[in-house]
């Protein structure tokens, strides 16, 4: 599949071992990785004005109880507009909730094929971790859009462990596993009034920046996220200094349910305990 000349490579169980060396090589050489996920739904819906702690409690519950359907990685840099994108289709073993079924079918996700031909998530975790290419490293930044769910599934996939119990520990653990993380929805707030008006979704952002069409599939949406990030940095170069250099070693994680929260933590080499503080 392709969008504006950028190929999205589909990964299923049958070609996983063939594609993994290419994915690992791209991860090894790329300073920026955009990630997006599709998953089997929400068991808990968070009230709009819930506290950040309640948001995380619901995120953690949903991520632990539900399953990935797709994960998309786009590897890129800021020197060129070349992107390399993979969409990994995962075998989902639990029932997908009806609202998610409707959206995913509308988006072209083949749920029956995912179940029968998708990648085993534990095997995927073993291969990503075993490659060493997804280890935390200096000079690499992960890019999301409104990405607390994307980051939660990714951290769980790469750590092979349950999510931490508290919001503070999640921020620190994300830093431990991934290193630098930036959220394009947060960054867009510094790009002018048009990016702050109303509820800015990825589709609206892609329209404002003219970077492509949203497909609601993980590979495509990671590609749109990468292209939006590139476009914003080129149009607003001050963001690179303020966001990347000013927050070296920090994690920025967007909230969920149509809120744009930004949380920052100093990363540590070890897991935090519940008493550790996390200031925004």
The structural domain count equals: 1
- Percent helix, as a range, is 40-55%
Largest sheet, in brief, is: 7 strands, mixed
- CATH fold description: Nucleotidyltransferase, domain 5
The parts where pLDDT drops under 50 for at least 5 residues are 244-280
CATH superfamily: Ribonuclease H-like superfamily/Ribonuclease H
What is the arithmetic mean of pLDDT? Answer: 80
Q: What is the end-to-end distance?
A: 40 Å
Gyration radius over CA: 17 Å
Family: Belongs to the CAF1 family.
Cofactor: a divalent metal cation
Enzyme class: hydrolase
Protein name: poly(A)-specific ribonuclease
Describe the structure in your own words:
It is a single chain. The chain has 280 residues and is of the alpha/beta class. The chain has one domain: Nucleotidyltransferase, domain 5 (2-Layer Sandwich), CATH 3.30.420. The chain is built from 11 helices and 7 strands. Strand 1 and strand 2 form a beta hairpin. Helix 6 packs across helix 7 and helix 9 crosses helix 10. Keywords: Cytoplasm, Exonuclease, Hydrolase, Metal-binding, Nuclease, Nucleus, RNA-binding, Transcription, Transcription regulation. Its cofactor is a divalent metal cation.
Which descriptors apply to this entry?
280 residues, hydrolase, 7 strands, RNase_CAF1, disordered C terminus, alpha/beta, 7-stranded mixed β-sheet, 11 helices, Nucleotidyltransferase, domain 5, RNaseH_sf
